[in-house]
Amino acid sequence: MIFTASMPTNRPAAFDPLRFAKPARGTPSRQEMIAEIAYFRAQRRGFEPGHEIEDWLAAEAEVEKRLGSQYHR
Fold this sequence. Notes:
Blueprint (H helix, E strand, L loop, with lengths): L29 H15 L7 H16 L6
């Protein structure tokens, strides 16, 4: 029998203890953190237009690196 990636496995899903954790009150949301980092990236560049998506994606990557799966919904 040939197994493909689409075939289900009998392994349980990886346990993620933070899956249901909510950020503490006063803690900025993931999107708020991304927006702030993207803003400061644009500010360093003098708000030169045309880099908005680049800034947002870089900010998302930075938040993901810092927080991992803590803020996934």
